[in-house]
């Protein structure tokens, strides 16, 4: 699954619905996400048991500080 633009309280319901309706383990590509707020992080935490993330160096610190990176696999762009 690929997310684009901003993930904030205005669209977290859409993100949650997309994750809920996708079966099995899920890799979410965040490389095109420019902004991720606490509401977006909250959705990702809700599904932590079945997601992995792909994130740019811009988002990596947010994922680390929030603790999300400690709970799931976070890949860099290109799978690194």
From TrEMBL:
Organism superkingdom: Bacteria
| Gene3D superfamilies associated with the record | STAS domain
Q: Which InterPro entries match?
A: STAS_dom (IPR002645), STAS_dom_sf (IPR036513)
Q: Which residues form the STAS domain?
A: 1-52
- Under what name is this protein listed? STAS domain-containing protein
Species the sequence originates in: Streptomyces thinghirensis
């Amino acid at each position: 699954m690929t997310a684009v633009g901003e993930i904030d309280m205005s669209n977290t319901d859409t993100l949650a619905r997309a994750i809920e309706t996708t079966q099995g383990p899920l890799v979410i590509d965040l490389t095109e996400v420019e902004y991720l707020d606490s509401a977006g992080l909250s959705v990702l935490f809700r599904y932590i048991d079945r997601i992995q993330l792909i994130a740019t160096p811009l988002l990596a610190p947010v994922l680390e500080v929030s603790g999300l990176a400690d709970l799931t696999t976070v890949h860099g762009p290109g799978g690194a």
